[in-house]
Structure formats: C-alpha cells, structure tokens
Amino acid sequence: MTNVRKVLTVFGTRPEAIKLFPLVHALAADERFESRTCVSGQHRGMLDQVLEIAGIVPGHDLDLMQPDQTLDALTANLLTGIGRVLDAERPDWVVVQGDTATAMAGALAAYYRKIPVAHVEAGLRSGNIHHPWPEEVNRKIVGAFAALHFAPTETAAEALRRENVAPETIHVTGNTVIDALHWVTAKIEREPALAAGLADLERRFAGKRIIGMTSHRRENFGDGMEGIASAVRRLAERDDVAVIFPVHLNPNVRAVMNERLAGLDNVALIEPLDYPHFARLLAISTLMLTDSGGVQEEAPALGKPVLVMRETTERPEGIAAGTARLVGTDADRIVAEANRLLDDPHAYEAMAKAHNPFGDGRATARIVDLMAAR
Ligand code: UD1
Ligand code: UDP
C-alpha cells in the first residue's frame, strides 16, 4: 500500500506505557501505519508490568535504567541510545507522551534528525519550573518543536496557544489514560483473577475504609516525603481506616517510607501493583492520597476523591470540578483534609461524584485519525 507512515513510539516509564499502550495497539492494527516501538527502559520492573499486561513486545529495548540514576547521565544515554534507533529505523513520525526524561530526549533526538514529533498529552503546565521538577521543563521542550500537539483538554490547548504554538497543530483529543482505564476495566471483567491479588488485604482490612496511596515526585524528596509519611502515621491511628500504599521503586521513596511506616497495623506497604491491581485498589478505596499525575486523572473518572500532595498541579480540571484538592505536603494539612472527608459525609459526597474532564475513552482513535490525515 502506498503512503503508509512508519511511526516509532518511544517510551520508558510506567505512566508513559499506560498512556501509550492503547495507541500502540491501535497503530499496529491500522493498515495506514507501520508501527514500531522503542522502550528506553528508564524504568524496568514498573515498565515491564505494563508491557506484560498490554501484550507489547518492544522492537527496541535500550534497557537504560541504573539504580538511583542521575538525570544528566540518564538524559545523555537516552539521547544517544534513541538517536541510534532513529538512524536504524528512519521513521516518518516519532510519538512521545508527557514529560519524562525519555519523552524529552526522544523528541529531541527526532528533532535533531528533522523527524516530526507527535506529542501525546501536550500542553500540561503548572506554571512553575520547580513543580513538578523536572517535568514542567521537559514538556515545554517538547512543546517547542512538536509538529502535532495532542492536548487532553481545552485548558491544555489554551496553554499551548499562549506559548505561540501554531493553532492548526493543536488538537484536543482527551487523555489516553481514560482509554487505558476502560481497556483494563473490561479486561478485569472478563478475567477477574487478573485483579484478585488484593483479596488478603481486603480481608485483613474488612470494615475499615481504605485510603489508596502513591507518592514518588522528585520535588517532594526530603521534607515533602517526611511530611507525607508523618501524615500517614497519624491517619493510621484511626481504627476505622487502613492505608494501602504500593511503594514506588525509586530508592529515595522506599528508604523514607520503609523507615517511617513499616510495621504499622493499619498500613500495608506493598510492592508496585500491576495495572489491573491498581485499578482494583482505586475501586476499593474511599479516597486517594497521591502526588501522581495519572492518578489525578483516573480517580475522578471512578468517583474517588483525590487529595493531591503537591503545591501546584498541571491538572486544574479536577480541582475546578471539585473532585480533587491540592493539599501540599504539610502533615497537619493532609491529616486535616483527609479527616474532613472521612468524618463529614457532605464534604465526601461533594467530592465523590464521578467526573471525567480528562477524556471520554476515545482519545486514541482521534489521535490515529489525526496522524493519518497528515
Ligand atoms: C520518572 C519520571 C517522572 C514520572 C515517574 C513515574 C523523569 C525525570 N521522571 O520518575 O516524570 O512521574 O517516572 O513513575 O523522567 N526504579 C526501579 N525500577 C523501576 C523504576 C524505577 O528500580 O521500575 C528506581 C531506579 O533506582 C531508578 C529510580 O527508581 O534509578 C528513579 O527512576 P527515574 O525514572 O529516574 O525517576 P522517577 O522518580 O521514577
Ligand atoms: N500505577 C500502577 N501501579 C501502582 C501505582 C500506579 O499501575 O502501584 C499506575 C496508575 O494507575 C497510573 C500510573 O501508574 O496510571 C501513574 O504512574 P506514576 O504515579 O508512577 O507517574 P505519574 O503519573 O505521576 O507520572
């Protein structure tokens, strides 16, 4: 067939894999495209969990993760490693997602070869280059030269227009994370065993309300993580509450959380969950405490209030809708906000409405059609 476009999708961490697997599936099934994948291996275990459940075997795997990797060494290796793959594959398009080091370096390596870049989840901005760090600058770098910007929301599209990005290159598609969530939910319905691994914890904590928790942001290392850990200790003193906390594999996170939270009756520190089990954790939780980006998008879609343990967010849509609240990393504030939700049914109901400002589950289909039209 003529005019088949060769697309190389480049990703490397858990959230990129989750938000890109629906697109990798769709490109592979569409005869208008020749689909290739390159994973940087910026994450290993957490990336592989997603590749396995999504059934993706990457065409290229740079396997770049090093223990506690520095940003400069990682970025240098990403640029040269992805550059070599681009020289071998010579794709017509490179797709990157979001704001990780892999996304930024993958896009830059493409730009250095004058290969057009399509940016999925474009236009998120907190307005503060230190929160989240270094993601705010990573995504601005990609936004400076991407040829197609797939903004999840109108707010994100507007942020790009304010930066003088050519309007005809910006498309509001919704966020592919909702597509991923729908996919995994349907898969669990067909195969419940895929998400049955929390049953022991569900029995142990029967009768208690579950707080689902994640934390990993670099700008929270140090005082922020200490504040988060002490908030969890205090919340776990309530006998009607239990915290289930799959701990990120970043050693900076694990050191603090293991030291401060191990051995508490009402806190389960567990290994990172694969995506079906994390979807199950969302489903059984009364509320989510998180500094994650993706969880801010998934929890409102399932009607779960989110307390965002950050100073700023690039996802203001959940705050505006009243399903998410910024609570920072100060222990007193986190505890007060969580207690308010746990003790005041009106406050809880006001936040627990299912709301989906981030997408309708059809973002991937829109992205594929927009790429085919180019
Ligand atoms: C990265 C992204 C961040 C994203 C997050 C998602 C950058 C700069 N940061 O942060 O935007 O929100 O991923 O989780 O791109 N590790 C493992 N196994 C894994 C994953 C990580 O052992 O599967 C450990 C390694 O020691 C690694 C360290 O975590 O060196 C840090 O990983 P890295 O990707 O550099 O940063 P994250 O903090 O995970
Ligand atoms: N997630 C997961 N298992 C976990 C924790 C999170 O599958 O134990 C998923 C979650 O559903 C979301 C994504 O990982 O889609 C968020 O990744 P992370 O918080 O690491 O990164 P961020 O979204 O902050 O970039």
Walk me through this protein's architecture:
This protein has 16 helices and 13 strands. The strands form two sheets. Strands 3-2-1-4-5-6-7 form a seven-stranded parallel β-sheet, with helices on both faces. It has helices at 14-28, 45-54, 71-89, 101-112, 135-145, 154-162, 176-190, 199-204, 223-235, 251-261, 275-284, 294-301, 316-321, 331-343, 345-351, 363-372, and strands spanning 5-11, 33-39, 60-61, 93-97, 117-120, 148-151, 170-172, 209-214, 241-246, 267-270, 285-290, 306-308, 324-326. The mean pLDDT is 97. Strand 12, helix 13 and strand 13 (324-326) form a beta-alpha-beta unit. The protein binds uridine-diphosphate-N-acetylglucosamine (UD1) and uridine-5'-diphosphate.
